[in-house]
Amino acid sequence: MTYLRRLLTGLAAFAALLLLPQQVHASFLSPEAEDKLANFLAIFILFIVPVVLIVLFWMVHVLPEKIAHKRHHPQFEAIRTLCLLSLVFGGLLWPLAWIWAYTKPVMHKLAYGTDRIQHDEPYPGEPAIGGVTEGIRERLAQLEAKGLSESDLKVLRADLDTLEAKLAGGDR
């Protein structure tokens, strides 16, 4: 009997709570805040997201070109052209450029005596070989003017000559 009384009391309390008038909101934000949020999201989605996606698409399609340049691929210019064509054709040629950048040319060494090519200009973002050594030579002259000891200067000059020989040999 007590069980039935508890059940009826609980149901009566639940029914009383259901009958009480309450305000119901579909969102935790006020209508003005919802409008501001919707405006911000619309502007963000319409203007910023496409720009970011275009930049990412471009950056991914330039990767084979950067890889070919870093690996001193002798067909670097052709890979660069294929990357640009891939941008025009929506990325269909990009896997070919990626594979080509990682392959080693088979007959190029027979024809030209090497399977690597030395680029005249550095890739954007990389320091030029001459620019690095010239900057070091200027700093060495400044240190010499300040009165650095002769033994220290000899060590620095030897290190600089070793660095120039290493860079000239293509062992970057």
Write a structural description:
The protein is mainly α and 172 residues long. Among the domains are: 38-106, no CATH class; 126-172. The chain is 71% helix and 0% strand. It is built from seven helices and no strands. Helix 2 (31-70) runs antiparallel to helix 3. The mean pLDDT is 80.
Keywords:
172 residues, mainly alpha, 7 helices, 71% helix, elongated
Individual helix count? 7
- Outline the biggest β-sheet: none
Using the CA coordinates, give the radius of gyration.
34 Å
Helical content stands at over 70%
Category by helix and strand content: mainly alpha
Chain-averaged pLDDT: 80
Strand content: under 5%
Provide a quick synopsis of the model.
This protein has 172 residues and is mostly helical. It has seven helices and no strands.
Give me the secondary-structure topology.
Elements: H1 2-19, H2 31-70, H3 76-88, H4 94-102, H5 108-112, H6 129-146, H7 150-168
Helix pairs in contact: 2-3, 2-4, 3-4, 6-7
